[in-house]
Amino acid sequence: MRGGNQHEGEARSRRDGRGGPTGGDNGTVRADRPDRSAASVVRAYVALTKPRIIELLLITTIPTMFLAAGGFPSPWLILATVVGGYLAAGGANALNMYLDRDIDAQMKRTRNRPLVTGEIAPRHGLIFGIVLSIVSTVWLGVLVNWMSAALALAAILLYVVFYTMILKRRTSQNIVWGGVAGCMPVLIGWSAVTGSVSWTAVLLFAVIFFWTPPHYWPLAEKFSKDYAEAGVPMLPVVASRSTVAGQMVMHTALMVLASLAIIPLGHTGWVYGVSAVLLGGWFGFLVLRYAHRVRNGASGKKLAPMKVFHASITYLSLLFIALAIDPFVHL
């Protein structure tokens, strides 16, 4: 984001003793400046939806639709589902930023978010999140089906209420159970095509559920000091590195098993089957190597948690790309 240093300085000047924004909804100046360009306003609201996270959600939704259809679904159905999914995830993310703006102001990774810098007033962010959530539910209900709409609404509530409001600041298992919300797009994609949810969709759900901890905990390890100062009990903050590494190995093993179970139950072909085996072996090796480094007392750059974080994104992306290609390749 442009002007990061300026925004950071402004954010500091508005923080109270707890590190949160002061002055309530009127405590920000930049949000109401008449000289702001329309493009800067749009960029701020787009940032509020966390588009990089949504990209990952959509890359799991579309391949799931291909598998459910056994080929290429209606282009209109794909577009309607993707737009509805983006609006739902964007609304949930905006509400998450509204509720977390106090701790976001204390963390280096998040202190440039629009509700911290004052680019968007908190009240406007809240309204934006609520409107997106309502529009997404109606959009999916009318243009896709009401089961997909109900699943999207459930995902919003799981992320905003179950994760953000209840789990995040209270338990080190926050990202495990709170990660359920991030698994919902595969159910939405499957139901968009079939109008129901099958065991194959449940297994795809399980893949993402078990993938989430080894994906997020390396990031939490890198920013553990930030989380500690903000009072968020991520597992790497409250547990030893060996405990975290052991949990990562366990979740990775369950993730790989779930991905392999899709081969017979989802009637997938060789493209997905070979990819699931090779990608599972590759990512499993990286997690085991990470655990080995932990046991040897490595830290910082030698531990390299972000390599596991980025590898996890590559793993999930390639696995679902293979899932999308598989219905079109037959031997």
Short description:
This protein has 331 residues and is mainly alpha-helical.
Q: Features of this protein?
A:
single chain, 331 residues, mainly alpha, Tetracycline Repressor, domain 2, Four Helix Bundle (Hemerythrin (Met), subunit A), 2 domains, 17 helices, disordered N terminus, EC 2.5.1.141, transferase, UbiA_prenylTrfase_CS
Task: Write up this protein.
This protein has helices at residues 4-13, 38-48, 51-69, 75-99, 101-104, 114-117, 122-143, 146-167, 174-178, 180-194, 199-222, 224-230, 235-238, 241-265, 270-295, 300-303, 305-325. It has 331 residues and is mainly α. It folds into two domains: 40-195, UbiA prenyltransferase (Tetracycline Repressor, domain 2, Orthogonal Bundle), CATH 1.10.357; 198-331, Four Helix Bundle (Hemerythrin (Met), subunit A) (Up-down Bundle). Residues 1-29 have low confidence and may be disordered.
State which percent range the strand residues make up: under 5%
What CATH first level of the largest domain would be assigned? Mainly Alpha
The Cα radius of gyration reads 21 Å
Low-confidence stretches: 1-29
